[in-house]
Structure formats: structure tokens, C-alpha cells
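Task: sequence design from structure.
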């Protein structure tokens, strides 16, 4: 079968298309014929070596890239009762989707509704599950709350805006350009601001009568995090779920007290997919919202195994603001 692997860390040039044997599922695993795979920053970060020492995401080289996908179960291993041969499924946080077939832990697999396409499933399962746990489990967003979503035109940012509005929150959003601001507005954000070297925090204070927002969702990291503190109310919550501008190595917890006794967390999706029931519940909620028209997932880049290098280059150059997928099967 065809697969895209890395045998060393580096830029898009380290991606290798190889022909390997179709793997066999072990106990508690399933073999899936991959129809579509999502393309994410986590794939780029894996290729760059950012998870080389991670305990949460213990992926090591050599490896087949692709941590989310959708397809058809063709074989089940021993002990698997949650799905069977022929099921249409999607998964995330299990590497190997850049291939014709992938072995996936059965506990990571969600069954798909019959009217959900493989491409939409591959585009939505990781980012949708991420937005779902951030809103439901971490921030517990509900009616009347206020939140700030950074990078609101990005894949997860767009979903956070839409789902937070669906839960009755007032949503503030930030983007880097006016064109991206239009995307955030179209997804339902109440106020969209440019970063302006941190001036967004002053503007949010003005718009909230000096109070600040209840929750900030910050995937930008180093260039925004301290200004996120300034935009948050006393005893508010800052959720740093990514660091696309690089790690922040000089943060003193004392700063959280000075900013108003803030709570700061750095969660990861893997710790919020505890079992098969949780995986299925998150997927059901996301796919139901898509079917109902309450959640829009836009696929704005399509690639194949033959041009995956171009997909990675586009991500690194920030030319993908929505979601990219790879059509495989």
C-alpha cells in the first residue's frame, strides 16, 4: 500500500512516499481503508519533531503521518466490540492516516452517520472534538458568558466561534487581517478585532465596561498570552491550547495573580478522549451540529498523496485558514 512517512525530522522535503505491506490490527485495534485524511498543524509539528519527547503524543520516527482520517473498517482485532467490519468511521489522535490503510485503536474510532461524507468527517473530527472539549469540559461555556477566541479565522477558531454562539455566549474574536476578520464575522462573532500588538486587550476592556471576558481561548501563544491576561476578568480563565508563534519559556505564575488571580491551563485533546463512549459522544454532537446547519466546516484545500508536500508548505506559510483534506480512497 501507499503511505507518506518521515524517517527524520525537518521541512516538507523529508516527506517520503513509500510502498509498504498492509498492516494487521492487533487486540483492541481495527484496520481501516482510508478514504480521506485531515491535514493539520499537528502533522506539521510531528514532521518538525515537536513531539519527539512527548508523553501525551508518543509518536516517534520512523512513522506514517496523519493523525485524523475517515474510512471503512475492513478488519477488527480481538476484543473489539464497539465496531465491526463495514462500519463507516472517523478517528483522530492516532497516527497513520496518510496511507491507503491505517490501524487505529478501537477506542479512538467514532461511527459516522450515514449522511456524513468521509471528507467532512476527516475535516471535522479532530478540530470539532477539540472545540467541543474546550467549550464543554474546560471552559464550560453557557448562556450569558463572554469569551475571546484568538485566530478566529483558523479551523478550530471558526468552530469555537460557532459553537460558543450556539451555547448562548457573547463572542469576541481576533484575527491578523481584515479579510480574516470577515470570516470570523461570517461565523457569528459579535466583535472582531485585529491583534494590533496587544491593543485588542484594551479594546475588549472598553467593550466590556472594564470587566474583561470570562474565558480566553488562545492558540497563538507567545505573542498574545500576556495580553490575553489583560483581556480576562478577575478570576477568569485563560485556555492556552496551542502555541503557533512559539513556546513561552519565561512565564512566572506571579503574573497570574497580578492580572487578577487568573486561572491558566494548557489542555490536550488526548486527555479528554478517555474512552470510546466519550469519543463517540463528541463526534455525535459535532456531526449533529453540522447536519442541523449550526456548524459550518469549510474545506478550502484538497490534496492527494502525490502533492502532500504542497499541503504542508501551505500550512507553514499560513495560507490555509480553514481546513485541508487529503483524498485517498
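Answer:
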Amino acid at each position: 500500500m501507499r503511505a507518506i512517512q518521515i524517517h527524520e525530522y525537518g521541512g516538507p522535503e523529508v516527506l517520503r512516499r513509500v510502498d509498504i505491506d498492509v498492516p494487521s490490527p492487533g487486540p483492541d485495534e481495527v484496520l481501516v481503508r482510508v478514504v480521506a485524511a485531515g491535514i493539520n498543524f499537528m502533522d506539521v509539528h510531528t514532521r518538525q519533531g515537536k513531539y519527539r519527547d512527548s508523553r501525551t503524543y508518543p509518536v516517534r520516527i520512523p512513522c506514517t503521518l496523519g493523525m485524523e482520517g475517515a474510512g471503512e473498517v475492513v478488519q477488527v482485532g480481538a476484543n473489539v466490540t464497539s465496531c465491526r467490519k463495514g462500519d463507516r468511521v472517523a478517528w483522530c489522535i492516532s497516527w497513520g492516516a496518510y496511507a491507503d490503510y491505517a490501524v487505529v485503536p478501537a477506542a479512538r474510532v467514532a461511527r459516522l452517520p450515514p449522511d456524513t461524507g468521509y471528507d467532512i468527517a476527516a475535516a471535522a473530527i479532530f478540530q470539532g472534538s477539540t472545540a467541543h472539549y474546550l467549550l464543554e469540559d474546560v471552559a464550560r461555556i453557557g448562556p450569558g458568558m463572554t469569551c475571546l477566541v484568538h485566530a478566529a479565522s483558523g479551523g478550530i477558531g471558526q468552530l469555537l466561534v460557532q459553537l460558543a454562539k450556539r451555547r448562548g455566549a457573547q463572542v469576541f474574536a481576533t484575527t491578523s487581517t481584515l479579510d480574516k476578520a470577515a470570516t470570523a464575522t461570517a461565523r457569528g462573532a459579535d466583535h472582531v478585532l485585529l491583534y494590533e500588538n496587544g491593543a485588542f486587550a484594551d479594546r475588549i476592556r472598553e467593550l466590556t465596561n472594564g470587566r474583561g471576558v470570562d474565558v480566553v481561548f488562545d492558540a497563538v501563544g507567545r505573542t498574545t498570552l500576556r495580553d490575553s491576561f489583560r483581556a480576562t476578568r478577575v478570576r477568569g480563565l485563560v485556555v492556552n491550547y496551542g502555541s503557533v508563534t512559539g513556546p513561552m519559556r519565561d512565564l512566572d505564575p506571579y503574573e497570574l495573580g497580578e492580572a487578577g488571580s487568573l486561572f491558566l491551563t494548557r489542555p490536550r485533546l488526548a486527555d479528554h478522549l478517555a474512552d470510546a463512549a466519550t469519543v463517540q459522544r463528541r463526534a455525535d454532537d459535532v456531526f449533529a451540529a453540522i447536519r442541523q446547519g449550526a456548524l459550518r466546516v469549510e474545506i478550502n484545500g484538497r490534496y492527494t498523496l502525490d502533492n502532500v508536500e504542497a499541503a504542508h508548505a501551505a500550512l507553514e506559510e499560513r495560507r490555509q485558514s480553514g481546513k485541508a483534506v487529503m483524498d485517498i480512497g
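The chain has two domains: 2-127+273-327, 142-266.
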